[in-house]
Amino acid sequence: MTVLDTHVWLWWIDEDPRLSIAARAALEQGGDIGVSTISAWEVATLERLGRIRLLPDIRTWIRRAVARERVSALPPTSEIAVAAGSLLPPFPGDPADRIIYATALITDSQIVSGDRRIARHDPARVIW
Known about the structure:
With 128 residues, the chain is of the alpha/beta class. Helices cover 49% and strands 12% of the residues. β4, α7 and β5 form a beta-alpha-beta unit.
């Protein structure tokens, strides 16, 4: 399984050219794709703040994005929550980043992310 950071999930669904070649290749391999349910919260927050606009509406976009073939919604388990809360500096303090990374860690998956802070923490796990 490959876990997607929130921006990668958005860009993949919208076929955004900002996805790197390596990220696009990882998504096109045909393996399972995991999306932390915290990404739905993050996407809803971005839309509420006016930073993105999802059509036709947020609920429909999320439902369709999670229903795609090979995509699984991954809720934060207590094990993921403990792993996220136990990450030491200099790991980013953003709770969504921590939960998404911990999801990849606990599921022993790679994470597709353009976030340099996450890549610096665990370059072997990050695809970008």
